[in-house]
Amino acid sequence: MPDSLTVFITGASAGIGAACARAFAARGDRVVLAARSTDALESLAADLNGALGAGTALVVPLDVTDAQAHLDAVAGLPDGWAEVDVAVLNAGLSKGLDPVWKNTVEDVDRMVDVNVKGVINGLRALVPGMLDRGRGHVITLASTAGHTVYPGGVVYCATKHAVRALTDGLKVDLHGTPIRVSAVSPGMVETDFSLVRFDGDRERADAVYADTTPLSAEDVADAVVYCAHAPAHVNVQELLLTPRVQSGFTMIARGEAADRVEGR
Question: Checking CA distances to 123, which of 85, 87, 197, 228 falls within 20 to 30 Å?
Fold first, then answer.
């Protein structure tokens, strides 16, 4: 892999995706910013290109649930950007916190389409070029939810179990090739994740992170960059990270208990 990488990031308009873009760019890599929110992408690209030099970031409007659009987006990358070294398949979401039989059809379809089909579409679009070039790295954003289930999050957990299976299966399918495959699986991270889950209910979303210290998007981005820039012979199969206040995937220390954990 070259010292300076070309990194294709889905869900790059906010949260972990945007943090990954900033972290890779700060290290000297070039980033392809892919998401549906064109205005947010343009703003991020302007910041990166202004601070780090023109040609640091490229905007690619993309709905990851559209398989043909994903193929077209990769095929349409301009000269100098087409040789993608690292694919960070980050786009994902959760909707609702209801028992599985109460999930709406729309919420189920949205989670499966973005979290599962979005990853498959990314693999179909990006892996063939990596094989042709004889180098590349696919990094999926999985979750501690892919290791367990919790009340109200069953469908979301099922999609993240699927992401882990896709990641592990891709490594098997690529056995004997130079392509690396990694999953980064964070626990509680304070982003707009809960705001999306609760349909914009800020009070309910803020309560998820109240009186405790979750991971930040930047913490997760550090892990992603580590995987991508590990020595060429090293494949980080999965990097599982949680905040210190989180135990057993669903246990979160809060208030005085969180203060003791943080050593304050």
Answer: 197
**Any catalytic annotation for residue 156?**
yes
* Domain boundaries, given as residue ranges, for the chain: 6-262
Of the candidates 14, 54, 2, 6, the residue with the CA atom closest to the CA atom of residue 32: 6
Determine the Cα–Cα distance for residues 27 and 5; give it in Å rounded to an integer.
Answer: 9
CATH class held by domain 6-262: alpha beta
pTM, two decimals, is 0.95
3-state SS track over 28-64: CCEEEEEECCHHHHHHHHHHHHHHHCCCCEEEEECCC
Q: Which residue among 150, 156, 209, 226 is the active-site one?
A: 156
- Gap between the Cα atoms of 85 and 184, Å rounded: 17
| pLDDT per position as a tens digit, 107-116 | 999 999 999 9
